[in-house]
Amino acid sequence: MKKVPKILFIILVLIFLYAPILILAVYSFTDATNIGQVRGFSLQNYVTLFGTPELRDMIVGTVVLALGSAALATILGTMGAIGAFYSKKRVGTFIGTLNRVPVVNADVVTGFSICILLVVVLGIGKETYVPLVIGHVVLAAPFVFLSVLPKLKQMDPSLYEAALDLGATPARALRTIVLPQIASGIVSGFALAITLSLDDYFIATYTKPAMFDTISTYVVNATKGSQTTIKTALWALSTVIFVIVVLIVLIGNLRGKKKEGMA
Amino acid sequence: MRLSRKTLGIPYAVFLLLFVAAPLLVLIYFAFTNGSGQFTLANFTGFFTDPNTLGTLFYSLCIAFVTTLVCLLIAYPTAYILARSRFRRSGVLIMLFVLPMWINFTLRITAMKEILTMIEGNLAYWPFLNSVIGMTYDFLPFMILPIYNTIVRLDDSLIEAAKDLGANDRSAFFRVTLPLSAPGILSGIAMVFLPAMTNYVVLDMLYNSTYIMGSLIGSYFSAYNWHGGSMIALILLAIICIFTLLTGGDEEDTRTGGTHL
Question: Across the interface, do A106 and B82 touch by the CB < 8 Å criterion?
């Protein structure tokens, strides 16, 4: 392929990926109720977004759920990875195989099966938030497991043995030798767990309390409703999230560069 | 008791047994029983004799197939150009294509819906086309990333060797680069095909359609028909198993790969 068509193709794909978000971002700063209307500048959508208790609760609830379930998933997944890595091969394979199930399974099936077991069979009420939190931990913990495991494989096994020989207890050797070595895997597992929880619709819809909404379930209901103030306030939300994601990626990239420069 | 490294795995193993294995067993039990707990094949035969559910299965397969194909046709050239460009070392360009993955998908679909509504007026006129556009928009990054990751790791000397041995650009591409990027293509297909079969929210948001496999579960769920819903979930699970075996299923690489900044 020649150079110009190549660049043109890349630009077209980028337009496809970004045009909807960016156009929505532009319109979020107007008082238009539909894309395409020519209207004046307005911050009304942002006022509604941050001023409506219902919207604020929904955003805070989503973030708290994501942080909480990601923390649980990170602890469980990391312990699981360490345990599976140092256990007999058969036990490790067993945990690894079960761990793969939620990864390849459709979220609809995962959410539905958890709902059947916890809500229908065991009778745990959805309003306790227990099914929802467990659902999100099931969604995220396998990915934490998968991002920690490679770090354990890369580690020099003699370091841990050396610590024990020098008199450290196993708990201390784990804390001071193993954990620092796998820390990067734990951190990226935690980040992944947060994004999975934030993006989830299917598990939440089958396990959430009736009065609680995550961003996903709220948006899906709002697109069917006819309240235009809510609809356009969500344009503002989309813009805010876009800016936050861009900032995180930029900071992550810059810090990555710095590390490379120092090494 | 001494704390050993092995015992650390016990809580997670118990967690997986309780909340991954047990729900699936309950799902199987529910799929083959009726409301009073008796064994029955009615849910199974019901699915395969009802023209409505069979039609939904066929329609979802069509949507998933076309979406996967469109994603592949856009993603392969994109990944190829990016992976062989001068900028590949920096990883900034690929970041641009992965970034949308981190924006809540319902908000992205809302954005796409507004744009399509402006262009077409009523989205229900071209349901199939709009489904494919919406899903392609949603899943394209998941196809680009694994293909990019395989091509970027390709050993350049293999391509040079092919050319030294007399291959022109075309045959070097078709006989060296393309076969070697097959693992990336396969995991990309797994990342797109299965969600496209089950992600009913995209269609639901775009034009209030529920004519797709995943939404059958949703409709049984709202009707409190756990047994019928379990059967649909089980059939989906079977399709997923077959598909994962066929593609080798390396998708954890892809989903995790995205966050390694």
Answer: no
